[in-house]
Design goal:
Largest sheet: 4 strands, antiparallel
Shape: globular
Strand order of the largest sheet: 2-1-28-27
């Protein structure tokens, strides 16, 4: 199994998660570190053997993970690239599409094999804060500084829905099954039906939410200014469990990593990155049992990390093979 993660600063770091002496003992081994952009990296995405980073230098940079090599850059945007997302069909180990968003409200759709620009869509009137691709690969949601939510038809390459929210949303995520989506505004996360956008419940967080990642069994993991990683039961709207003081500073990225083969003994890994420059990997099963959870592995970059991205798509790698990419600012 191959996993990828990231964070940023114009520098990119690579780490490999390897077992040490037992199944519960892991270490993050550095793979590489180099400045891949001319200015701060604002977004990252990864799927299978490919990773991408978006920067305030208006470019998207691509990476081949197995060889730790650069694949070049994409130059379709004329503003800071604020959000990235890959779409990978369940039957494939390589992504089919890359979707990107920028600070001028545009969304670009790329074919990922090879990387060819297919379409550019004006989704918002102002900066796009985040976007999420539906598990079917046919739709995408985006939120922006125009206080609006947009739905994009990725098959036809056009905006199909646009509505005013009344307040700015900072991030949006689909659930793993695509039946619900989650939208964060400051310290609140709304749980919505994907079919009609009906608000099901609202999660009240203690501080501003900066990152989120859906998990199995209806869980949603959030992190932010409270320095905690909180697992929410999206059905009841209550906290399932919490990793308190997961970092010394704000949590800027969360990625849920699983084997995805249905085994009950599979490790349920979660990676987190903070603006304190530390990346940590957790087994959330231990977090549910212990009063004070301890990370399985961690690495320090001595930089201000700003985002985290990951992939748990099956490939011909070792089942304990994990790669983490970090970008810092």
């Amino acid at each position: 199994m191959s996993l990828v993660a990231g964070s940023n600063e114009r520098f990119i770091w690579g780490f490999k998660l390897k077992p040490v002496t037992s199944e519960q003992s892991l270490t993050l081994v550095p793979l590489f570190s180099y400045p891949s952009h001319q200015s701060a990296i604002l977004s990252a995405a990864a799927a299978g053997p490919i990773a991408a980073s978006g920067s305030s230098d208006d470019t998207i940079h691509l990476y081949d993970l197995p060889s730790a090599a650069s694949l070049g850059s994409l130059y379709q945007h004329t503003a800071s690239v604020t959000a990235l997302s890959f779409y990978t069909p369940p039957s494939l180990s390589f992504p089919r599409n890359l979707i990107s968003a920028d600070a001028e409200g545009y969304v670009c759709i790329f074919d990922a094999d090879p990387f060819v620009h297919l379409k550019t869509v004006r989704a918002h009137k102002k900066r796009i804060n985040d976007l999420a691709v539906h598990p079917s690969g046919k739709l995408a949601l985006s939120v922006g500084r125009d206080d609006c939510l947009a739905m994009l038809n990725l098959v036809r390459g056009r905006r199909s829905f646009y509505c005013r929210l009344g307040r700015e949303a900072s991030l949006v995520r689909y659930g793993l099954d695509g039946e619900k989506f989650f939208m964060a505004t400051e310290d609140r996360v709304g749980v919505h039906e994907a079919e009609d956008a009906k608000l099901v419940t609202e999660l009240q967080c203690p501080n501003r939410v900066l990152c989120a990642s859906p998990g199995e069994n209806g869980l949603l993991f959030t992190g932010g200014e409270d320095k905690n990683i909180t697992a929410w039961d999206t059905k009841s709207g209550k906290v399932a469990y919490c990793i308190e003081d997961a970092h010394k500073s704000r949590v800027k990225g969360i990625v849920v990593l699983t084997k995805n083969n249905g085994g009950v003994d599979d490790p349920y890994l979660l990676a987190s990155a903070s603006s304190d420059g530390v990346v940590r990997v957790w087994d959330v099963r231990n977090s549910m049992k212990e009063e004070k959870a301890n990370p399985l592995a961690e690495a320090s970059t001595n930089a201000r990390l700003t985002c985290l991205a990951g992939s748990s798509i099956k490939c011909k790698c070792s089942p304990r093979h994990v790669i983490l990419l970090i970008f810092a600012i």
